[in-house]
Amino acid sequence: MIATIYIEESIQQHPRTLQICSRFSRARKIICHRYTEIFNPKAQNFRLQKQQPALILAEKHNHFIHRAPAGYGIGGDRNYYFSHMLNCLYDCRYCFLQGMLQSANYILFVNYDDFVQEIESISRENTGQQLHFFSGYDCDSLALEPVTGFAAHFLPAFARLANAWLELRTKSTQIRSLMDIPVIPRCIVAFSFTPEATATALEHKAPGVQRRIEAMFRLQQQGWLLGLRFDPIIYQVGYQQQYRQLFEAIFSKIDVQRLHSVSLGVFRLPENYFRKIHRLYPREKLFSGPLQNTSGVVSYTDNLEREMMHNCREMLLQYIPDSIFFPCQL
Ligand code: SF4
């Protein structure tokens, strides 16, 4: 799966580096000074690289944890996000990473303990407040879990913090590291969905809708708290019927009582990301409308956006209480 691994010289002997390299013993290993030499040059072709991304093992030196944008949240007092990894195993055509990053290679920051230290320090500074930490902002939280051991490392850390919640955002069925440990009460395993037809057309390499529902079911049986993320909602003729079927499939299997939150947001991209992705996939139907550019953000026309949010909200509220519903305000 991984044919080339770039390794920053300073972390050649890091235990996580050694462990990952031993897993891919036949991969070509190339030592570099900083990951930016490989990752940042312009004129790389994201679409071509996506066919066989290299793995870059690097060290992050600062800015481990960021405040989440206003309007992003699921009921916490303060919201943060962090990225132990950039880029994703999957290849969703609507993914903003294709527009934001120069390269499709995976970067993994191996110094997890530095992230944890900053999370602990934020937790100490904000006792009495419920803090939500979102992973899976610049990657899928679980898709590469057998390689990265991300959840296995971070979950015990969160278990020790009384006011810190971790959201694992995923489309993956890689749940073994959760099934093998006692449930962490302040972890939300949040699954992203679009209807079956959209997922098949746009979410390349990601597990299908039914497999995700099965993974959710198994986690819920074990006692894990779940989230549902319908973001982005994607327009297609007959989208109401498709979303109705999706909600029926999910809620016929998932117990709403053990659901932490449900969020909903329409497709939107910063204009420069949109242009770049459109250049990569000029024939993609998703980008042919009905879209508008409002102050540098490309999204559906106002009327359509309002209609989609309204219709999906009404359908969802037939299954869930309003108290766990969080429309994305970005
Ligand atoms: S799963 Fe998320 S991060 Fe991965 S390609 Fe799809 S949208 Fe992007």
Q: Would you kindly provide a written description of the structure presented here, covering whatever features stand out?
A:
With 330 residues, this protein is an alpha/beta fold. Helices cover 34% and strands 24% of the residues. Bound molecules: iron/sulfur cluster. Iron/sulfur cluster (SF4) binds next to strand 7.
What does the largest sheet look like? Answer: 8 strands, mixed
Per DSSP, the total helix count is 13
* Physical arrangement of strands within the biggest beta sheet: 4-5-9-10-11-13-14-18
Any idea what the radius of gyration is? 20 Å
Helical content (DSSP H or I, runs of 4+): 25-40%
Measured distance between first and last alpha carbons:
36 Å
Number of strands: 18
Which class of secondary structure composition applies to the elements? alpha/beta
Can you summarize this structure?
Helices cover 34% and strands 24% of the residues. It has 13 helices and 18 strands.
Task: Outline the fold blueprint.
Blueprint (H helix, E strand, L loop, with lengths): L3 E5 L6 H9 L4 E5 L3 H4 L6 H4 L5 E4 L7 E2 L10 E4 L3 E2 L4 E2 L4 H4 L5 E4 L2 H14 L5 E4 L10 H4 L1 H10 L4 E7 L5 H4 L7 E6 L3 H7 E2 L4 H14 L2 E9 L5 H13 L7 E8 L1 E3 H10 L10 E4 L2 E4 L1 H15 L8 E3 L3
Parallel strand pairs: 1-2, 1-3, 3-8, 5-9, 9-10, 10-11, 11-13, 13-14, 14-18
Antiparallel strand pairs: 4-5, 6-8, 7-12, 15-17, 16-17
Helix pairs in contact: 11-13
